[in-house]
# Entry
Amino acid sequence: MTRATSKTFRTHIALFGRRNVGKSSLLNALVRQNVSIVSDVPGTTTDPVEKPMELLPLGPVLFIDTAGIDDTGTLGEMRVAKTQQVLDRTDLAIVIACGTDWSSFEDQLIEETERRKIPSIVVFNKIDLSSPDAALLEKLGKKQITVVEVSALTGKGISTLREALLAKVPDDVLNRSVLGDLVKPGQCVVLVVPIDKEAPKGRLINPQVQSIRDALDHDAYCLVVKERELRNAMNQLRTPPALVITDSQAFLKVAGDTPSEIPMTSFSMLFARFQGDLSEMVRGALAADNLKPGDRILVAEACAHHPIGEDIGRVKIPRWLTNYIGGKLEFEHVQGHDFPKDLSSFSLVVHCGACMWNRREMLNRIMFCRDAGVPITNYGVVIAYSLGILERALRPFPAALDLFMNLKGKGK
# Structure
């Protein structure tokens, strides 16, 4: 993979700790570049600093340097909030301390990573000045937390830290595929790509590009067509395709033009699985049956694009859901990393496919919704359900299909 690898495929490794423990110095030592400003003045790092690079043999990673978790004052509180937000997308956390200087801040960081099931490494920096307390090392050892002692100044222990990072990255971060388990080498995948007002001029959108690349990586081949050309293209194939993937906005037409024996789904549903939890999104879509006029729906987009007149999140999904329940609903929209801390006023969260994120951030949002008791679903899943074709769109995913049929059978 090249340096232009999408953040979606980069392992996110974040550095956390109090001010002046040497987070920025450690990042510079790890990447062998001066990417973060280093100073003796506490609070030098304000906003998170990102550095994409190749960490061999792991591959593409994104290091994130953060502001001190103990920052003070009004601006300091805002910086801490930004730091805590980074936890939402962290695949592997590095908690940094100095010598015997360990407090509730570090304990809280470890507790939060454990709660979120984020693997972590504790790094004691500045060992050229002081060593960590033996009792503290024993305490961390009992919790089976990996500990590395380094000096960012002299470089001692940096190679050991790199080895620890490689060993600690979870398998589910490394071994993921958009559609590789759905097609076999030599099979054909048909991708239906509408070229409408929202299609970026001169290029395809991220889920389409990633799906094409993943099919090629698994030695399948692709036929890319617009929705009005699908029927004619299918008629010219001597062998039926193994899978048809469509943009959610063309679901009904593509379903009508694709023979029922050919598996069909959407890019959005592929990414509901690849980036999150498809079964959880199915549960959320069925929650639409419990909506009533006046309920509040939160629509969340991972990226920040300029909406057009027929925007899917602001116009089409509200229209489909309103028609589905037969009454007016209240919609609120958020973009990027912004997300309400209090979800109690919402009856449903409808999320995009999060194709611009790593999977960890999407899983954290699902966890947050689950903890709040608010169902969450995905654009493509809820569109398919409101159009009455979710059962067919789930056929490529047996576990999610079984869940859907069981829940529908129970009337939930």
Q: What stands out?
A: The longest helix spans residues 73-86. The CA atoms of residues 9 and 384 lie 27 Å apart.
